[in-house]
Specification:
The protein is mainly α. The chain folds into two domains: about 5-50; about 50-85, no CATH class. It has five helices and no strands. Helix 1 (about 5-20) crosses helix 2 and helix 2 packs across helix 3 (about 40-50). The longest helix has 17 residues, at about 70-85. The model has no long low-confidence stretch (mean pLDDT about 85).
Length: about 90
């Protein structure tokens, strides 16, 4: 059975695509990942757009705290997103 794609997969692909100077679209994300149903990619791409502002602010914080491991910054971001959703 094929493994489905996760929200994190789509978010990372969208980040990669935008870093390359292109607008993340369902088609580009599917091409980047090499898999994923259009419905699943659409759902996770919408959550990516909803968090763009937060992620930009987070990047500013990361720049202000040199040396913070990327994984720690990412986990902190995910924890904060979960807290906001549960609030």
């Amino acid at each position: 059975m094929a493994k489905g794609i996760s929200e994190l997969d789509v978010h990372q692909a969208a980040d990669d695509i935008i870093a390359a100077g292109e607008r993340p679209t369902v088609e580009r994300i599917r091409a980047h990942l090499g898999t994923g149903s259009p419905n699943t990619v659409t759902r996770w791409l919408e959550t990516w757009w909803q968090t763009v502002g937060f992620r930009l602010r987070q990047r500013a914080i990361e720049a202000a705290v040199p040396g913070i491991p990327e994984r720690v910054a990412h986990l902190s971001q995910r924890l904060w997103q979960a807290a906001l959703q549960d609030a």
